[in-house]
Amino acid sequence: MLVRHTEVARAWRGRCYGRSDVGLSRAGTRAARDLVDQWTGPVDAIVHSGSRRAAILAGWLGARLGIAPVIDFDWRERDFGAWEGLSWTAIWRATGPAMDGMLTAPDTFRPGGGETTRNLVDRAARAWARLPDGDRVVVVAHGGPIAAVRLMQGRAAIGEIAAFIPAPGSITDLCRDAGAVVD
């Protein structure tokens, strides 16, 4: 089960924050509390990316269920390099449609000198493959790695990854036995 962190702090709206360790907004904090309060069903293990915005939710869920969350840094968001912290508008002004390279050149384009889309997908595949044993493992992570796993399970082309990014606070329930092939 993949859970995307809830809404980030207002100061980061419209900005590229990828690997930046940003906190939650007030609404994001309430949404995380609500997710935990409404949680039903058993959980065998909880994994999170180590980023504050994921650790908050994982920690609260772990405290409620009596499970110590485990950090796996491969669930972190994409590394956007020098783009981190910039507004998407400023990035567009500086690069124009070059940012489309994340989808049109997934093996070579490094946004801000950071990680290629292929790097992101490969990292998420490694994280998915080494999840702890159990039928109900909860991973609290980010849009990019969750999209990568959804992409792999849907056997879609890597350039389609943007269509698989879940909304903040969403839960994606996936079968761990499904293959992970990305062209």
Quick recap:
This protein is α/β, with parallel strands linked by helices and 183 residues long.
Characterization of this structure:
With 183 residues, the chain is α/β, with parallel strands linked by helices. Helices cover 34% and strands 9% of the residues. It has six helices and five strands. The chain has helices spanning 26-37, 52-65, 88-95, 101-104, 117-129, 143-154; strands at residues 2-4, 45-48, 70-71, 137-141, 171-172. Strands 3-2-4-1-5 form a five-stranded mixed beta sheet. Strand 2 (45-48), helix 2 and strand 3 form a beta-alpha-beta unit. Helix 1 packs parallel to helix 2 (52-65). The longest helix is centred in the N-terminal third of the chain and has 14 residues, at 52-65. The chain is globular. The model is unreliable at 179-183 (pLDDT under 50).
Averaged pLDDT, please? Answer: 94
Q: How are the strands ordered across the major sheet?
A: 3-2-4-1-5
Span between termini = 24 Å
Number of alpha- plus pi-helical segments? 6
Could you give a short account of the major beta sheet?
5 strands, mixed
Overall geometry comes to globular
Extract low-pLDDT stretches.
Answer: 179-183
- Residue share in β-strands: 5-15%
Order of helices and strands: EHEHEHHHEHE
Report the C-alpha radius of gyration, rounded: 16 Å
Tell me the total number of β-strands.
5
Strand-pairing-aware structural class: alpha/beta
